[in-house]
Structures are given as C-alpha cells and as structure tokens.
Specification:
Elements (H helix, E strand, L loop, with lengths): L10 H6 L3 H17 L4 E5 L2 E5 L3 E7 L3 E5 L6 H7 L9 E4 L6 H30 L10
Antiparallel strand pairs: 1-2, 2-3, 3-4, 4-5
Helix pairs in contact: 2-4
Length: 142
C-alpha cells in the first residue's frame, strides 16, 4: 500500500504512492473503467479511487497482494458466477497482483453498475412524480 499516511486528493496522487509495477496495474484498471464509463467523475472516497455516475460505480484500491474492487456485484447471476474465484470478504472482489487482472470482467462490472445506477435514478424520478400528483378524487385549483 502507499507509504504516505496523507489522503491523496486525486487518483493520480493515489497511484503515484505505489511501486511502478502496481502503478501499471492501477493505471490499466483506471483506463478500463474510464473506457466503460467515459462520463463518470473521478473522486477519492474512503481514501480510495472511485468513479461516480448517478452514484458510485466502483472503488478500487491496492493492497500488499491484491487489488480490491468494491462494491460487491449484485444483479447479474452469470457475472457473479464468473467472479466467484475473486470473491473476498463481504462479496468484495480481490484480484491477486501476481495474476493477470481480468480487465474484461472489470469492464462488465462497470457497465452493470452504470445500468443499475441509471435504473435507480429513473425509479427515483418516477417516485417523485407520483408523490407530486394530487390524490385521486381531488380537483386541481386553477
């Protein structure tokens, strides 16, 4: 993990805190997420790089022997089965640093999260419209 106890303010600063080998992996993950979600905003949240679009898409963080990807994947049984070898505690994913990082799976995760966040946003918009409508049987005032 990074040697500094200071929280980085950008993803660039976060990545710079690691060895060149880990930096290469983190850059590739960042590029994969960016390609899958080009409109997402990069932030540091919980001291980790994160991407936001209609909510958090993913967080990622480097550790001594793995890269973690958060939050847990839900809502796509086929994808969840493929990710089983990488499942860590609480369903978060752990990609070992001594193995190739499955960038194709990370791309699928980001696209799933994009769809889930968009659906959640659309559902909130529908609820607000439903709440704003007058109750049945009442007349609108002119």
């Amino acid at each position: 993990m990074a040697t500094s106890t200071e929280t980085p303010s950008t993803i660039d600063a976060y990545i710079a805190g690691f060895s060149p080998e880990v930096q290469t992996i983190l850059v590739r993950i960042r590029e994969t997420v960016r390609a899958a979600a080009p409109e997402a905003k990069e932030v540091i949240s919980y001291r980790m790089p994160a991407f936001m679009q209609d909510g958090i898409l993913v967080y990622f963080a480097a550790f001594k022997g793995h890269v973690g990807l958060y939050p847990p994947v839900r809502g796509d049984a086929a994808l969840e089965r493929v990710l089983t070898p990488y499942a860590g505690e609480k369903g978060n994913l752990r990609f070992p640093l001594d193995q190739p990082i499955p960038l194709d799976l990370i791309e699928r995760i980001v696209k799933l999260r994009l769809a889930q966040n968009a659906a959640k946003k659309a559902a909130k918009g529908t609820k607000k419209k439903a709440v704003a409508a007058p109750p049945k049987g009442t007349k609108k005032k002119a």
